[in-house]
Amino acid sequence: MEHTEIGVVHTKIDRADPAAVAELAKYGVATVHEAMGRVGLMRPYLRPVYPKARMCGTAVTVLLQPGDNWMLHVAAEQIQDGDVVVAACTTESEDGFFGELLATSFRARGCAGLVIDGGVRDVTDLEGMDFPVFSRAVNAKGTVKATLGSVNVPVVCGNALVRPGDVVVADADGVVVVPRERAAEVAAASAAREANEEGKRAQFRAGKLGLDLYGMRGPLAELGLRYED
Question: EC annotation (predicted)?
């Protein structure tokens, strides 16, 4: 599959293991990103359209044409329970590709949310439905249905490569993509990182300084840091 394919819908995709997806859902974006080696983040302009929106699921990908949401309707048929729709565009566009009606359709298919490098609208309704959406913009401007794109091809969304079936985790800190074949490994690494951070948290609560916990004093002194009364 190539991300430049136009006019194709791939109906069979390999999704990440559901158990690994469920494990990844326990952790925040920052934890997953760090546990994976500080890779996989989408650009920070992709923001939740309402507070406390979060999601974790396997990607059904959509390649849109600017100002045209036809392929989102095509993608609805390919959604399975727990999927997240990830929509990119052939060129920058902030039109309102998605709103409450499409959210209703997606939810009926078991969709866990949407990440779109474009605009959305009906934000109050989306919040009322608690349908998580992360978007480039909020924009009331409507779209047409006139030009073919593709569904379930690799796309670049917010500068991150997303393949059908990869895991997408999103919360207030941003959006991170976990390659489907690494889902179990990254979930385990996230659990280990969380446990390690809890140990540090306990020491910070007890009053220990990061200077000592992380052994910073020696390197700072070597660089010439001095304390003066």
Answer: 4.1.1.112, 4.1.3.17
